[in-house]
Amino acid sequence: xxxxxxxxxxxxxxxxxxxxxxxxxxxxxxxxxxxxxxxxxxxxxxxxxxxxxxxxxxxxxxxxxxxxxxxxxxxxxxxxxxxxxxxxxxxxxxxxxxxxxxxxxxxxxxxxxxxxxxxxxxxxxxxxxxxxxxxxxxxxxxxxxxxxxxxxxxxxxxxxxxxxxxxxxxxxxxxxxxxxxxxxxxxxxxxxxxxxxxxxxxxxxxxxxxxxxxxxxxxxxxxxxxxxxxxxxxxxxxxxxxxxxxxxxxxxxxxxxxxxxxxxxxxxxxxxxxxxxxxxxxxxxxxxxxxxxxxxxxxxxxxxxxxxxxxxxxxxxxxxxxxxxxxxxxxxxxxxxxxxxxxxxxxxxxxxxxxxxxxxxxxxxxxxxxxxxxxxxxxxxxxxxxxxxxxxxxxxx
Length: 397
Ligand code: GLA
Known about the structure:
Helix content is 41%, strand content 21%. By secondary structure, it is of the alpha+beta class. The protein has 2 domains: 10-209, Ribosomal Protein S5, domain 2 (2-Layer Sandwich), CATH 3.30.230.10; 215-386, GHMP kinase, C-terminal domain (Alpha-Beta Plaits). Helix 3 (137-153) packs across helix 4 (159-171), helix 3 crosses helix 5 and helix 4 (159-171) packs antiparallel against helix 5. The longest helix is centred in the last third of the chain and has 25 residues, at 273-297. Alpha-D-galactopyranose (GLA) is lined by residues 38, 42-43, 45-46, 178-179, 181-182, 346-347.
């Protein structure tokens, strides 16, 4: 069994060949942006909390060439929609018929707004991330588009500006209520490091992961995240509501994640039991992230892993974004002695979980997890050991 199969090499070649067949002319330039898993800090970004994502060595590739007529032609190896539009003719929000192409179009609009760019581009996408499974394929598409437009136009935007631009495209044009974690994790990644991102003020630091005494095993439940968007938005609104109660009843702080357990006490029955559960997750998860970073720094992988598993339990119980498949796969993984901890990654509701495993021991974890999961759900999960990969880049021609 190969858990580290190198599928990457083939995708950029296929993207480039598909581009040439579809758009004859000069050779395109090819760019990559990574997806991410989140080690800890679940659903904290939109509440102004701290998160610890890790860019992975899987992601999205785009072959790109500028045009001079304001037209965007968008294609993907994996998606059916083929979209040709005049950028200046688009409205302020995505058109349903554009499907996945809303992400690059949203980025192109933001890029035009920031840089004054008025030309067009031919873009052909492909990737090796499982789509819509909690590893941020959409942020990788957005960041790859921004990096390609930036390089092809010679605009020289900073990576931080690219991260912000990609995030605005998603919350604005695409109309997703997401926080900043995914776009920042992709755009600002450094190989061998996780990104400790303080979402309240967008400051960040890179935390060394290489040599930390664990490897990251991704476990794909294959459970589609059908209700993910509406359930995700519901959590965002619940957190806003809890924040409003705390501001009114207890004290005025800019973000929900900045309140304490004592503040929640003081709010009394102002918080319904559901809002109290959500806010308690946020406040406790903040403390877990801080403790987790200290343990990582001290080389205490057992302690770090235990917090990662507590994070999962809290997202399942107080935050209610897990599902039977994610609970079972994380429990099965944690039952193996080589596993330090496991949790869902991304929004939840299906898709992938991660397990932190002793280096080189993933195969021994995979066998019983696969067997147990198959017996319970009749579905063969996917497994892959991932590395903390570098950020976006252009591939050699
Ligand atoms: C999704 C969102 C992120 C973040 C996570 C949950 O991936 O896009 O902004 O909220 O869920 O941690």
